[in-house]
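Give me structure tokens for this 332-residue protein.
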Amino acid sequence: MSTSILKIFKLGFPWQTKDPFLFCVYHLDFFPKGNSELGPNASLEGRNLGNDFTIKDGWRMYHGQTIPGFPVHPHCGFETVTMVNKGFCDHSDSLGAAGRFGEGDVQWMTAGSGVQHSEMFPLLNTDKENTMELFQIWLNLPKTGKFADPHFKMIWHEDIPIIEKEDAAIKIVTGDFENEKGPDPAPDSWAFDKTNEVAIWNIKITSNGTLTLPKASQPLNRTLYFYEGDSALIDNQEVFPDHGIELNSESEVSIHVKGKSAKFLLLQGRPIDEPVAKYGPFVMNTDDEIQKVMQTYRLTQFGGWPWPYPDNVHPSEKGRFAKYPDGTVVEK
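Here you go.
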């Protein structure tokens, strides 16, 4: 095995990640045509509604009962980075923030001291199928940021740099690629400090094309996820889709795609290197802190739920938009 490759592993659900990331989920659903309620115009018979994670007919309902997605649930002590490459996501939260984003947009939410939100997948097309491709990445917060004020940030795809190389396109959600810088992350994020070299890159390499990943300036956790294509030579080691590759961040790495074009996600960052205690949607440093957070949630509901439904969606005619906690609305 190449000295630039530390480990190759099979991808599960969710994807295995390394500090400072907690995990990454990849959703690809070929939803049918939508109905008048933004749900599937198809029978839900035979699905374990409320907990439907088994792909049936090419799609899943997740925790949704009538609309696919994730009705209201709490988070505390970390951040979610949600990248929607295809389809749309409707966000609503206990801060009063809301949005509809997709077509390459990214939402960055710092849960910090606690927030409730819902993430629903409205099936807006009633005359054709509704394909959805989405990554949700959980990025940890250090002890000093666990109780930061919650923060909602929308990063529109028009503002995300895409580096065009001879054989590849690199979308920089955060971090630097060569001399190009991605958008600023949320202000309390581990990624906000550039010395942590946090990177989230979505990479497409053309058929039989080659891309060289630049080396970082320090030892980092760097993982490449191969999720679409035929095969690739990574420093002459053949790798197939549905595999993750842990890389030596202090080495340049050559990726040569064999066969059809291929897609990769890269997650990189300096580890926080602190204890991690997790219980469902809560991430702290100790079990005692988890118990205290759960007690806080029972007492405060992290501000309550200001929306009419737990699986809140926005009107079908609504385009891409963001409503911020201060009431500011941005329409795209």
